[in-house]
Amino acid sequence: MTLRDTHVNMGHGGGGQAMHALIAEVFATPFDNPLLATMEDQARVPLSELAAHGDRLAFCTDSYVVDPLFFPGGDIGTLAVCGTVNDLAMGGARPLYLSCAVILEEGFPVETLRRIVASMRRVAAEAGVQIVTGDTKVVGRGAADKIFINTAGIGVIPVGIALSARKARPGDRVIINGPIGDHGAAILVARQQLALEADIRSDCQPLAGLVAAMLATCPAIRCLRDPTRGGVATVLNEFAAASGVGIRIDEDALPLREPVRGACEILGLDPLYLANEGKLLAVVPPDAADAVLAAMRAHPAGADAAIIGTVSDQAAGTVILQTGFGGERVVDMLVGEQLPRIC
What confidence tens digit (pLDDT) does each residue in 149-201 have? Predict the structure, then answer.
């Protein structure tokens, strides 16, 4: 069977030769690995392989819808792999296997689909994971917005690692691995809905390697989370509420690229609420903060890491920003949807 169609049609979701050709050429060949090659309805993973990496299984799933599909620094395929890999890593897990389910709108260009799959293959290799099972559905024109992707992931948490949003303690330090708001700003600019020209690229990247380096330095890290939708402000509020503590952050310590700062000033946006796809927030014990920071800066994904705040025993459940002008303001969790369809 050879795929000759240039655009997806309903036959590609019908279970017959057209569907098998699409799956074989567009998905199975680029993602080729022993678990996928069996082409069964499920990937069969030996338990011994999982047990070799730790004592607990981490399992997550996420769905991806973004407009435009391609943007500076990535595309929907990059997001689909990075997002699920990073969700596993935030629990301290070593990501191992992903599934990939795709919903395609009738008429979607096959060449565009190939580009997206190529991105997924590249990032999966970078992250050290295999895409081992999947599914393809085709819906009629207008029933979907070009392409939706769902990826689920399996990883294993090493013995002795126990991260949780409930573990922050007064005196702990809050660390971020680099500049905030790049992804949200990049999507806004890429949509060309605004008369704004700026050299802004998404920060989309897998973070499992960085997390491994951090945990090797300090297995007692309290909390990890990636600030995607809702941004840094929302994650910090989640930590404060779950742990029953206050968090104070320093505006001058927040890493922020000048083009993003400028775009936010022009558009009246707060970078604390912009989405990120390659950033993490860590809460670490005070006596380990410098060592963790050094380990992060030694890794490419954490070269611009910075300590941005401290956990407090006052104003439990609240995040306070020390402004550059010497004042203070409460940073609430995001209300509503500031930037729709960013991941």
Answer: 999 999 999 999 999 999 999 999 999 999 999 999 999 888 875 666 778 99
- Cis amide linkage into residue 68, ω under 30° from 0: yes
Q: Could you tell me what percentage of the chain is helix, strand and coil, using 3-state DSSP and rounding each to the nearest 5?
A: 35, 25, 40
Distance (Å, rounded) from C-alpha 119 to C-alpha 122?
Answer: 5
Q: What are phi and psi of 190, to 5 degrees?
A: -65, -25
Q: How far apart are CA 235 and CA 125, in angstroms?
A: 28
Provide the whole-model pTM.
Answer: 0.95
Q: What are the pLDDT digits (tens) for 47-91?
A: 999 999 999 999 999 999 999 999 999 999 999 999 999 999 999
Helices 208-217 & 289-297 angle (0-180, nearest 10): 140
With cut-offs at 50, 70 and 90, classify the pLDDT of residue 338: low
CATH 3.30.1330.10 fits 10-157, yes or no: yes
Helix, coil or strand: residue 52: coil
Tokens standing for residue 230: 């809702």
Instruction: Return the CATH number of 173-330, one of 3.40.50.300, 3.30.750.200, 3.90.650.10, 2.170.150.70.
Output: 3.90.650.10
